[in-house]
Write a structure and sequence with these properties.
Oligomer: single chain
Bound molecules: zinc ion
Helix content: 25-40%
CATH topology of the largest domain: TIM Barrel
Number of strands: 17
Radius of gyration: 21 Å
CATH superfamily of the largest domain: Metal-dependent hydrolases
Number of domains: 2
Number of helices: 14
Length: 452
């Protein structure tokens, strides 16, 4: 049994003082507030908050971060020119270098306060002939070695576009027949245990047929897995969907599928008022990835309208342009402020934006990960973050503004320790295996740069 006495802890109903957390077998078994003196052997912590779920990650794209920020030609750069660079990278990845790159990404996620990651994965074939199971094995190894909780989400990718039934040559490493895909999903689910669970998904409406998406949805329902899907990220997707189907992507999906709490729709950037309302009413969670959406020039999700309609949201690091949940939440709010020329836009239930966004990202992240229990509560996984209460960023902040300070002040989140499944993975502000992880990452980058 591990015990932590938190001088201040964020519980489900708000901040509490002198909270004793008892942890056994990777789970929080007891939470008691108002315990003034620690029992023998307890760790005394300043401020404890729950770890967040990174609800949308492409770990391999960590190898691309900072390498696409220059003009690629005479024309205007866009998501689609960035995608060319991303495809070049996928042509060089195999299970070995994927494990090293993913481990670096996961290590950085832990150090920044994410304790779970939903890995949205479609790179099913490696350069040296690795199959889908081997590529999953690489991600599992990266998760094990870093210590992060992994929700592996294999996603079906069948075709190049709505009216292009075959994949392009560069998409062949992603493409799978639906039967083979479902067999891979079944094997992955069978191999999962401990900190690894398995969801399921489809890449996007353009990349799968309606019939196949029904098969994926049926598998999700039968297995109880969360179902993830990129949708309406780029305006061109909207135009292509309208041309091919005569209807907008989110409307098309809502009309044909029983979209409910099991669904996680990633981005949903380009939605009209009716779609926003109906998406909120469905109970599905929308995963927003503000740093990536900004980096790729996607557009802006109508956050306030969605939240006021009862919508549920999660956050993700997606392309790994930024790995920091507090920065994601900050930019989520800043994008809305810039567009609306107003302030505190996301404060629709709680006057404090920081508290409201953190609470929503925590609950929405757990929903996207398929976790029924979350937060600092009995029965929840022991996934938590210890903050340095003495840090100047937090000086003088109490229950009302502490999360506002974490989101909107300072440069570096004062994280002291991070625990996943009852084990400390970050100590003294650094991941415990930071040095060997960085060394292997640098070697993988050299290999990726050198490969033909
Ligand atoms: Zn994505």
């Amino acid at each position: 049994m591990k015990r932590i006495l938190a001088r201040r802890a964020l519980l489900g109903n708000g901040w509490a003082e002198d909270v004793l957390l008892s942890i056994r077998d990777g789970e929080i078994v007891e939470v008691t507030a108002g315990v003034p003196s620690p029992p023998a052997g307890a760790l005394i912590a300043g401020i404890v908050i729950p770890g967040l779920t990174n609800a949308h990650s492409h770990a391999f794209q960590r190898a691309l971060a900072g390498r696409t920020e220059h003009r690629s030609g005479a024309g205007r750069d866009s998501f689609w020119t960035w995608r060319e660079r991303m495809y070049e990278l996928t042509g060089r990845l195999d299970a070995g270098n994927l494990a090293a790159v993913a481990r670096q990404a996961y290590t950085e996620m832990l150090a920044s306060g994410y304790t779970s990651v939903v890995e949205f994965h479609y790179l099913f074939r490696g350069r040296t002939g690795n199959d889908a199971d081997a590529m999953f094995g690489a991600l599992r190894t990266a998760a094990r070695d870093s210590g992060i909780r992994l929700i592996y989400v294999p996603v079906l990718y069948e075709r190049a576009g709505f009216d292009r039934p075959a994949p392009e040559a560069r998409q062949r490493r992603f493409a799978m027949e639906v039967e083979s895909f479902l067999a891979h999903h079944e094997r992955a689910a069978g191999a999962a245990s401990g900190r690894v669970t398995v969801g399921i998904g489809a890449h996007s409406l353009r990349a799968v047929s309606e019939a196949s998406l029904h098969q994926v949805a049926a598998r999700a329902a039968a297995s109880g897995a969360p179902l993830h899907l990129h949708i309406a990220e780029q305006r061109r997707e909207l135009v292509d969907c309208l041309r091919a189907c005569g209807v907008r992507p989110v409307r098309w999906l809502l009309d044909r599928f029983d979209v409910d709490e099991a669904w996680c729709l990633v981005h949903a950037t380009h939605v009209n008022d009716g779609e926003t309302h109906d998406l909120a009413a469905s109970g599905a969670v929308v995963c927003l990835c503000p740093s990536t959406e900004g980096n790729l020039g996607d557009g802006l999700f109508p956050l306030e309208r969605f939240l006021r309609a009862g919508g549920r949201m999660a956050i993700g690091s997606d392309s790994q342009a930024t790995i920091n949940p507090f920065e994601e939440l900050r930019w989520l709010e800043y994008g809305q402020r810039l567009a609306s020329e107003s302030r505190n836009v996301a404060a629709v239930e709680d006057p404090h934006v920081g508290r409201e966004l953190f609470r929503r990202a925590l609950a929405g992240g757990a929903q996207a990960a398929g976790q029924a229990r979350f937060g600092l509560a009995p029965g929840a996984p022991a996934d938590l973050v210890v903050l340095d209460a003495e840090d100047p960023m937090l000086a003088g902040h109490g229950p009302a503004t502490l999360l506002d300070a974490l989101l909107f002040s300072g440069h570096r989140v004062p994280i002291e320790r991070v625990m996943v499944h009852g084990e400390w993975k970050v100590m003294d502000g650094e991941h415990v295996d930071r040095v060997p992880t960085a060394r292997d990452f640098a070697a993988a980058l050299t290999e990726l740069g050198a490969a033909p």
